[in-house]
Amino acid sequence: MKKTSLLLLIIVCVSCKTEESFENNVDEIFSAQFKDDQPGGVVMIVKDDSVVFSKAYGVADLNTKEKITTKTLFNTGSISKTFVSNTILSLALEGKLSLNDSLYKYFPDFKNTALAKQVRIHHLLTHTSGLPDNRRPLLDSAFLITAKDEENFAPIKLNDSLLFESGSQYEYSNPAFNGLALIIEKVTGRKWQEVIKERIFDPAGMKTSVITDGPFPQSGVSHAYLKTATGFIEKDYGEEPTFPAAGNGGVWSSAEELIQYEQAIQRTAFLTNEMLSRSRTITEYPNWNSNERPFIGYSWFVSETEDGSKMISHTGTQGGFYCDYVSIPSKGIIYVMLCNIPVQQEPKRENVLEVLKKFNWLD
Fold first, then answer.
1. Interhelix angle for 22-31 vs 345-358, to 10°?
2. Other C-beta atoms within 10 Å of 160: how many?
3. Cα separation of 81 and 300, whole Å?
C-alpha cells in the first residue's frame, strides 16, 4: 500500500473515531447554537464522580467580552428552591420546625386565619398549597423590581380563599418559597441567606456561590440576554422584576459548584439518608384529585429514564438565564447546563440522555 493511501486511511479512521466519541456527540448538541462572541452557556456531565464532559460556550458579558468558564457564576433561577428546601429539611431534622407546621404558626397576620391554619410547610415544598399568586394584580412591576421576599409574600397573606384544597392538586408557586425563606429567618433569627451558606454552601465546598439580597453586583457574574431583531438586550437584575425575591430564585452558582452540591447531597452532607430519600420520593397526598399524577418530592421533580431508573431534576429560568440540573444517582450521572441566553432545557436534556444511552451509560 502506498504511503499516501495509508496516511489517508489513518486520517479517515481517526475522524470516524472522533465523530463517535462521547464528548463529540455531546458537543454537537450545543455547539451549533452558540457563537464565541455571543451569550452562551456551560455544560458539565459527571459519570461515577469523574467529569466526562466539560465545555463552555460564548461570553459572560457582552461589554467586557469575558469568556464563560465552568467557574462562571450564573443565576440558577428556580434551582434555588432546592437550597431553601434542603435547609428547611435540615431544620426539621433538628426539631426546630415540623413539616406539618401550619403557616399560621409563622404568619399569624394572614387575613384568613382558617386558611393559614390549613396550609402546612410540606404543602409549600410540594407546590400543592392552593394559595393563589395574587401579586401582579396588586403590585405594579416597578414595585416588583425592588421587592424582596417579605414584599413578595405579603400579598399572599391577603388571600381569603384557596384555588383548591391543600394537597389535592399541583400548581407551581414562586411565593411559596419566598415564604419558606422567611420561615428560615423566623426559626433561626438570622438572615436566611447566611443560614443556607452555613448549612449548604460550606459543607458542599461551594466557595464562590452567593445568594441575592437586594441589588446584585454588576461585575463578577454573568449577565443574561435576549436576542432581538436589532441585537441583544440585557435581561437580568434591574430589567426582570423577579430577581430581588431570592427565596424562589436567588442562588448564583457555577457548573462546578452545582456538581459539588449534588455530590454533597448524595453523601448526605446535610440530610440523613431517610430524609434525603423522602425529599426525592414523589409525595402522594390522600386527598389528591387531579387528573395529573403527582411527580414532585420536596421541591425536586421526580421521573424515570426509559429503563426505569429514578431521575431527579430541577430547571431554572429567570430573565435570560436558562438552566437545567439532572441527577440519575443509580447510574452515577450528574448533568448541569447553565446558560445566559434562552435555551430549551427539556429538549437539550433529552438529547443528552440519548447520547448517554447510545454509549451505554444508562445500562
1. 160
2. 10
3. 9
Rounded Cα gap, residues 119 and 180, in angstroms? 12
Whether the pLDDT of residue 7 is over 60: the answer is no
* Coil/strand/helix, residue 335: strand
Q: Give mean pLDDT, residues 64-89.
A: 97
CB-based contact 320:237 (threshold 8 Å): no
Smallest CA-to-CA distance from 224 within 58, 39, 68 is with 39
List strand residue ranges (DSSP E) for the chain, in order.
41-47, 50-57, 74-75, 210-211, 225-228, 231-234, 251-253, 301-304, 310-318, 321-328, 333-339
- Summarize pLDDT for 307-324 with one digit per residue, the tens: 899 999 999 999 999 999
User: Is 219's pLDDT higher than 50?
Assistant: yes
Sheet holding 301-304, edge to edge: 50-57, 41-47, 333-339, 321-328, 310-318, 301-304
- pLDDT over 80 (residue 18): no
* C-alpha radius of gyration, the chain, whole number: 22
pLDDT bracket for residue 12 (50, 70, 90): very low
Q: How far apart are CA 212 and CA 191, in angstroms?
A: 12
pLDDT digits (tens, 9 = 90+) for 122-170: 999 999 999 999 887 665 667 777 889 999 999 999 999 999 999 999 9
CA 53 to chain centre: 20
pLDDT of res. 216? 73
Residue 145 exposed, middle or buried by CB count within 10 Å (0-12, 13-18, 19+): middle
Distances (CA, A) of 220 to 67, 179, 290: 12, 29, 44
Query: Could you give the domains of the chain?
Result: 36-358 (3.40.710.10)
